[in-house]
Amino acid sequence: MAQKNNAQSKPIKDVLDKLSVEELDIAGKRVFIRADFNVPLDDNLKITDDKRIRSTLPTINYAIDEGAKVILASHLGRPKGRPDPRYSLAPVAKRLQRLLNTEVLFAADCIGPHVEGVVSKMKAGDVLLLENLRYHVGEETNDEDFAESLSRLADCFINDAFGTAHRLHASIVGITKYLPSAAGFLMKKEIEHLKGVVTNPVRPFVAILGGAKVSGKIGVLEHLEDKVEKVLIGGGMAFTFIKAMGYEVGDSLVESDMLDTAQRIRKKLKSAGIKFYLPVDCVIAQTLEPGAETKIVPTLEIPKGWRALDIGPATVKLFSIALANAKTILWNGPMGVFEIDAFSRGTFAIAHSVADAYALTVVGGGDTDLAVHRAGVSDAVSFISTGGGASLQLLEGKELPGIAALTDKKT
Ligand code: AMP
Asked: Which of the residues 42, 221, 255, 385 has an alpha carbon 20 to 30 A from that of 333?
């Protein structure tokens, strides 16, 4: 989440009407911080990417510096409501200890008399990580008793788990009934950027949408309808739009049940005066095999038996020119099957165009985040969201349960 200062932007409007961490008096208090430590682990339970842990460090360090007793909680994987060592947060405790350079206590459960005993002995500045919240069924069912048991550990609640803010779970929503509840720094930054970009964009505002399916991005397209100047569509979803216009797309990905919707949206955007760009050429192959023969063809000339798996060089040029005068760019979804080298060039080229733009650039969605990192330009975009589903829902203009549940800011 590097910040760059070259954007000619107005300050992001104060879009958070909820308490934030600096507005809580936490000195000497027991502070329950809900984090998203759902990190990827290899077969030996070693963490392969600790970005999610690092994203929450500003909130944790702030709480330590303020002299709070810091109680951290998260889910990891899907242990189905019972203890399962494969999903233990113990490796996270070890990594946190290294990142914070301070002792991190680890409790073998997240509720109950034993944990309450450990908490009662904590001193100002101590850090405790609780075991996986999803070892209890009550977490995902937002069970009131479970939420109340969690709340008993603390005097106040801070939610920094943006990636889980769209879930109606006990440690996200239920607990807020019992404790003053505020947004952590990561949560605040996510809301300010994602909500800010769609409520108060500096114009021209260009949205780039990609990824596999139209169905996953329809909500965003509908919400952006009266906000953007241009929409650039890449990835598999482009071919549902092209097919809906009456063209053949070979064996490219098409969602047959979305053809009417795609046509309706395209016409609606057009009549609203929004420029709607689709790929003019693409990289095609007969299979997804890494060594498969590939060709570059105009989009309207994809033969039967071949499928489009990336945007072509003419589209990269077209999209890059269309981006050149943007002052705000929102990018969600890759331009092709970027996981495979032969189909990654379009996505990486667009990543460079976005990074080079003299604009506020906001990148959302797990895949796009990965693409920007692989392209080596993550430091040159203004903001990369840590949330997949949660960021999409915010961009769709929906209220996230985890944000709605926080204590209202005093006016
Ligand atoms: P989404 O989760 O909808 O953002 O989709 C991301 C996935 O879309 C990535 O894993 C890409 O491999 C895939 N994808 C992108 N372009 C295409 C395409 N032209 N055909 C099939 N899959 C694609």
From this structure: 42
